[in-house]
Amino acid sequence: MTHLFSGTNIEYRHDSITRQVFSHDASNYCIEPKGVVFPKSDTEVMTIIAKAKEHQLSLIPRGAATGLTGGCLGSGLIVDTSKHMNQILEINRDEGWVKCQPGVVQDHLNQALSPYRLGPDTSTGNRATIGGMVGNNAAGSYSLRYGQMIDHVLEIEMALSTGKLIRFKNPSSTLLDSLRPYQSEIERRFPKIKRHVSGYNLDHFLQDPNPCKLIVGSEGTLGIITAIKLKIVPRPKNIKLVTIPFSSLEKAFSAIPDLLDANPLAIELIDHTILKLAKSPFPGNPEAILAIEYDEHSLPTPFTPLSEAERTAFWKIRHNGLGILLSKKSYNRAIAFFEDPALPPEKLPQFLKILRQTLKRPFGLYGHVGAGCLHLRPFVDLKDPTEIDAMKSIMLQLTHALIELGGTPSSEHGDGLVRSWLNETFYGPKIIEAFQIVKQAFDPHNIMNPGKIVAPSPFEKNLKSPLTTTLKTHFDFTSEGGIALAVDMCNGNGQCRKLDGVMCPSYQATRDEKETTRARANALQYALRTGNFSSPDLHEVLDLCLSCKGCKTECPSHIDMAKLKSEYLATQPKSFRDHLFANPDKLLPYTPNFLRNLLNPLLGIAHPLPKKSPQRFTHWFSRQTQPTNLSKQVVLIVDTFTEFFEPQIGKAAVALFNLLGYHVIVPPYACCGRPAISKGFLPQAKQRAHTLVHNLLPYAKQNLPFVSLEPSCASALIDDYCDLLPNPITCTTQTIEQFLQGHRLPKTPPLILHNHCHNKHPPSLPLPITPLPTGCCGMAGAFGYETEHAPLSHTIAKHTLLPHLQNIPKGHLLIANGFSCRTQISLYTPHRPLHLVQAFTAVHL
Q1: Is 78 strand, coil or helix?
Q2: What average pLDDT score do residues 371-390 get?
Q3: Which pLDDT belongs to residue 39?
Q4: Mean pLDDT of 619-634
Q5: For every residue of 268-303, which 3-state class applies, written as one string?
Q6: Which residues contact 527 (CB under 8 A, 6 or more apart)?
Q7: What are 162's strand-pairing partners?
Q8: Once rounded to an integer, what is the mean pLDDT over residues 579-607?
Q9: Could you tell me if 598 and 608 are in contact, meaning their C-beta atoms sit under 8 angstroms apart?
Q10: What H or E segment, with its residue span, contains residue 154?
Q11: Which of 380, 492, 697, 750 could bridge 812 with an S-S bond, Cβ 3.0-4.6 Å?
């Protein structure tokens, strides 16, 4: 396989870690491919097909791999169109269409159309690609008004296994004639609801014999899509959201038909399981919430709509419903295997009764109930081998129930590996024959994503097995259920592929799946299974993790990759440079400048290291006399950067605290160990933590507040110490924003704020602050200094930070509380940002 694409410019990877990373999606399946190709053009796609035929390899098209069915997994070559084929090719407002490549993310397309108040908006958000949405016939919340992808697709350009690149837009009489003998069976067997995506869309094709009707929802089994032309529609206006609590699911379901009479934009359900896990603010502990969205085309209703903030908060809970269900730290958790049924809305109460009788176990439920679509998640014990047969039995029983009720096993997620085996039960052998005719017509060589829809694999084949390990760790992983479960909690939902927020800065800069949090989790799963932590491939995947901790807050499963990476680094040999950066208080302040200039290129250090201040902060503080009329006390935990490099920040903090009526206590300086944690020196970090806790203990006994000025050090005290030490006293440490909250603060000039990754959402203060919508700065402690990482560090800075710094209004102060952030900004811009405490200096102190 090494020389498969020799002599071409096709990006091709077949190393073991890439194969491992691409053996997962958001399903419960795992299949290792032979390799992965990342085409950049139609021509390259055609070359890939030719090579696959020559070497008898199957091809598995892949977008964001956020599907829940295993639809983009296979043992052949993965064809990832998301990395390079992600351009919007044309927007034609006059004719009402947009043309794009398959790798375009749906949210990005909506953003491009938003200035015109247009969009396809068929869900599925901030990482799903248009190609994947076509493959699954995606829908979403607004399908009541706007339908599914099948209602928007006008043309598809697709490469076939025959070696042809065809633009499908005109009716195909030949294919229609071959399916005519099955017309009566199709009319009898296919459900009469709009939301059904199991199998090929034979019913739609008979009504409109455009081959696009068959390609939509075909899950990559017919060819590789290279371009899509979509109908665009006006976006809804004057949207109002109403939420109605119910004391039972039965009552909620029974209310839906009447609510539909008002022509709502959407009706969504969240059940008590999700509400409880989400710590929902809804009073009265309802068993279910129905959320109804209305727009200018809806009829008037007597309900009071939510405010815009309340609407945003609700949709956050709803959109994170899947992640919230999967966030339970246990192997007995909500699993996707029959998660997508739909039926006529008036039949939902009847189906609920059957559902409870069949499952006989807890489950979570949410969905687009206005369209009869349910997202069902029964709790399954993954460590119990009898559960596989139980799942199959549940699926068969519910499928038969859906046949009787006029429903479908899948309304928007497709068949994939998990449900293709049900198609014969649901449709019968004659429809399966018709599916095979379609497959043969498009893919006579049977190389396009085999094993889905037709000729399926058994349900249990290639299911993941629970991860176990005997690895002893430095961090305490008890709260996660052990390190194995901490890694296994990644469910592949792909939230780490989004291009905003903090998570994941290296992916946002490279668009490379290997740099996602889920790829790192998959690589660690493999390492824990094999016990091989010395693999260069594993190092490569974890190396570009910046330990930003964005995943701990933004990943629905709260994967803490910074903690896991640190545990991994603890198993690895260390270089002199690692020791240098892990101990910034021991070496950096005492290394003469001339020696630094000599050592930097030898050690692989890209930028000048920070210069030591002539006076340490604690030396200055020991000579200070504070006002005698201060009635309160605060303990200032001095970080290494304030102590050695920027004592002026500590001085400003003391002056501010005095102004607020606090006598400042500064314990003996001790590094918190954040640099050691980041570099994997965990025994040393634990020792440093013990020292600092010892220094703070007398003040903890007095219940005095602790404040840390440096966000990364604050996160070590608040977060990491809780897993390094038993019962640490530092978990109540406050960031500067937390401490200042509730105080009457002096006035400042207008402030522009870039927040540190470890403190991206600080509490608001009564100050003229404008937070920048920036992600990671890219410096990340030592990361940006290291020669091999400096280019990526700069690229990350250019993603969101640097563009937002180009037009700082005159008279505004730029604030960045993180030492790394200030360093990065000073490296690449003329700005010299300040710490928040310094903002008060010029005016009041």
Answers
A1: strand
A2: 93
A3: 98
A4: 96
A5: EEEEHHHHHHCCCCCCCCCCEEEEEEECCCCCCCCC
A6: 533, 535, 538, 568
A7: none
A8: 87
A9: no
A10: strand 153-159
A11: 750
Average pLDDT over all residues of the chain: 94
- The DSSP result for 231-256, as a single string, is E-EEPP-S-EEEEEEESSHHHHHHHH
Q: Is a pLDDT exceeding 70 seen at residue 843? A: no
Taking Cα atoms as reference points, which of 164, 160, 124 lies closest to residue 141?
124
281/306 Cα distance (integer angstroms) = 13
The fold of the 11-80 domain, in CATH, is 3.30.43
Residue 683 — φ and ψ, nearest 5°?
Answer: -60, -40
pLDDT higher than threshold 50 for residue 378: yes
Contact 33, 75 (CB under 8 A): yes
Contact 59, 77 (CB under 8 A): yes
pLDDT for 307-319, tens place per residue?
Answer: 888 888 887 777 7
Q: Are 119 and 109 in contact (CB under 8 A)?
A: yes
Q: How far apart are CA 127 and CA 496, in angstroms?
A: 8
pLDDT in tens, 187-235: 999 999 989 999 999 999 999 999 999 999 999 999 999 999 999 988 8
- How many CB atoms neighbour CB 576 within 10 A? 11
* 347 phi and psi angles, rounded to 5 deg: -95, 0
User: Going along 178-223, which residue ranges are E strands?
Assistant: none
Question: Which of the 8 DSSP states describes residue 25?
Answer: -
Give per-residue pLDDT as tens, 239-260: 899 999 999 999 999 999 999 9
- Would you state the structure tokens that stand for residue 791, as one six-digit string? 């280019």
Condensed to tens digits (0 to 9), the pLDDT of residues 11-69 reads: 999 999 999 999 999 999 999 999 999 999 999 999 999 999 999 999 999 999 999 99
- State the average pLDDT over residues 326-337: 84
CB burial readout 285-315, b (16+ within 10 A) else e = ebbbbbbbbbbeebeeeeeebbeeeebeebe
d(C-alpha 416, C-alpha 339), whole Å: 13
Ramachandran area for residue 762 (φ above 0: left; ψ -120 to 50: alpha; else beta): beta
pLDDT of 594 strictly over 90: no
What distance, in Å, lies between the first and last C-alpha atoms of the chain?
Answer: 68
Instruction: Categorise residue 284: left if φ over 0, alpha if ψ from -120 to 50, beta otherwise.
Output: left
- What is the topology classification, in CATH, of domain 88-234? 3.30.465
Instruction: Give Cβ neighbours of residue 660 (< 8 Å, ≥ 6 apart).
Output: 743, 745
Q: Which of 328-337, 418-427, 428-437, 802-811 has the lowest mean pLDDT?
A: 328-337
Confidence of residue 321 (pLDDT cuts 50, 70, 90): low
Q: Do domains 88-234 and 617-740 have the same CATH topology?
A: no
Coil, helix or strand at residue 805 = coil
How many whole angstroms separate alpha carbon 102 and alpha carbon 62? Answer: 10
Radius of gyration in angstroms for the set of CA atoms belonging to the chain, rounded to a whole number? 29
3-state secondary structure of 59: strand
Percent share of the chain, pLDDT over 90: 82
- Quote the tokens at residue 408: 């479908």
Report pLDDT for 757: 97
Rounded to the nearest 10°, the torsion over CA 412, 418, 419, 422 is -170
pLDDT one-digit tens code per residue, 108-120: 998 999 887 777 6
CA torsion sign, 177 to 179 to 181 to 183?
negative
Q: Count helices and strands (H / E) in the chain.
A: 38, 24
What residues does each domain of the chain span?
Answer: 11-80, 88-234, 478-569, 617-740, 751-844
**Among the listed residues 141, 101, 319, 351, the one whose alpha carbon sits nearest the alpha carbon of residue 227:** 101
- Select the CATH number that applies to the domain covering 617-740 from these four: 2.60.120, 3.30.1360, 3.30.2130, 3.40.50: 3.40.50
